[in-house]
User: Fold these one by one.
Assistant:
Number 1:
Amino acid sequence: MSGIGDKFQQETKYEPSRMPRHRLVWDSKPALYKEYPEAQKIKLPSFEPNQTMSLDQTLRQRKSIRDFQEKAISKDQLSYLLWASTGIQRIEDGYEYRTAPSAGALYPIETYVIVNDVRNLDAGVYHYSIKAHQLEQLKQGGFRQEIAAAALGQGMCGAAVVVFAWSAIFERCKWKYGQRAYRYIYLDAGHIAENLALAAVSLNLGSCEVGALYDDRVNAILGIDGTDESVLCMTVVGAPA
Ligand SMILES: Cc1cc2nc3c(=O)[nH]c(=O)nc-3n(C[C@H](O)[C@H](O)[C@H](O)COP(=O)(O)O)c2cc1C
């Protein structure tokens, strides 16, 4: 069986005789950070776990957790999970680099959180402002049922205390890599998701990645158009049952 995926894989191969030769148009380089200027901003505490688990122990303990306790996490923990998955980690020559690598340092992935149960934070949908390390509130209210339904009825999305949803702004990466960008965009998201999975373990929390979702139902919850920007995958987080 062959289809669009096979065609994509073949047509986006690099070959010495067939390398793209376009020049980068710096004036049309897409912005690196998405902002919601009208949204209410929620500062995130800077937080370092006081007991650090070794990388070896973290790797040995990570597994997909799908059953959660009804136990809220703190804003400190959420802050650490956001930073560990994709926060700014260093500045070199004036350029902000993050905890996860990104092809060409173009950072096409945006992070949203659907908050079900985080102490001192209203339930709702938020965008993570990476530059300011703060949340921007997009919607207020309970989304447990909607997000579970959008994930093909996977109840863990409603039971988790927080659902991370990653989208891509495709043009950020296509600007440089053309159609090959799609390979890198999915890889970028995978790196971020694994950072989150390991960070969750280090806080004695559990997580499970979610690829089975109705794309446009999740896009509607996040308020994104599904064309220039579309969801790629999600991860649910909570205290293991
Ligand atoms: C890209 C991706 C998508 C996934 N989607 C789902 C999902 O929709 N639902 C689910 O229950 N698990 C999902 N998983 C979790 C896998 O089923 C799980 O990682 C796999 O069974 C290996 O088990 P482990 O994570 O416990 O090592 C996904 C994992 C990845 C990496």
Number 2:
Amino acid sequence: MTDHLYYHDSFLYEFDAVVGETLTSDGRSALVLDRTAFYPTSGGQVFDTGWLVTSDDASKLRVAEVTEGDDGTILHLLENPASLEKGTRVHGMIDAGRRRDHMQQHSGQHVLSAAFVRLFDMPTVSFHMGADYCSIDLNTKNLAAEQVEAAEGLANEVVTENRPVAIRFVTQEEARGLGLRKLPPAERDQLRLIEIHDFDLTACGGTHVQGTGQVGAILLRKTEKVRQGWRVEFVCGKRAVATARRDYSTLSEAAGLLSSHLYEVPAQIRKMQEEQRAARKASEQLLAEIAELSAGSLLNATAETAGRRVVVRNFADRDLTFIKLLAQKLTRQNTNAVALLAATSGQPALVFACSAGMPLDMNALMKEVLGKLGGRGGGSKDMAQGGPQQSDKIDAALRELGEQVSGG
Ligand SMILES: [Zn+2]
């Protein structure tokens, strides 16, 4: 088993070790050392990366991933194939920036989870650390925005107080009487406890800061209902600053587009939505008026044949909405009107309609025309609509149909 140096000092970024074994894992070279400061993925925290350099400086190996076996053996997976003899001395250097980021996220999670328990008795059931943000799942049925804000407030209060964070090792037996926030399943004899002075005590194998002030800041963002409760996304430390910077840039861009102050953006958007609704309503009203007027002049210009006024028209600059409206107006303004209309602005459309009670079947006529032009459509005896495939043949088809209907 590897000696886990990070158990005792999370700020140890360099160390010396001896190679125990070189093996292959998933096609990659992997080294086992007698001791390591490299943290393997576990408990929600992701692995460290870094370098291993042989003491004669002959090889500098990139550690791309670190995993831990069930027996506590830590595998340093290398970016490039390499094989070092057992007993080779190496100097390890972990990527300090990445480690510091992980310590901020993970320690911030302890503070945040404890805050949710203290304020609302909402235990954390899982923790996820991603490349951009972290999340905890809370065991609760409901989570209100005010609760999120209160937990964020308390968590940041604890950060500001810069409370010491201590590591303790106890037995399972001893742990039972300590009132831990979370007790791991009884597997190991020794438990590693992380204690935030006077605020939180929990068992954890991860890397943490020495004082809560090093977390920097805790920013809560999206919350969503998940199967086992509520998920809360958060970012800590430098990630919180980077995220706030990005949020600010996005918001200022939006404010710039609206020529408004940052905090006025939602009010501006609401105003625009209202204006849009009003404009849509006004244009619908105008369209109805145009249809009404067009219907009147079309009926006037159409001679009555065999007691019917058959209006045949293909509009190149109108759409389905307009010809439907026009068909309604035509057949309501006159008791013997037949409208055979097409619109080819956008998706080609056909609308056939007749005044109520006329001995005609618009649905049948539509099917007949679509049989020639292709496409689908249908409707009732009084009104039918369709989407023809061959729009270049619409004029001819409508003319033919018009003659047929007028001939009575
Ligand atoms: Zn932890």
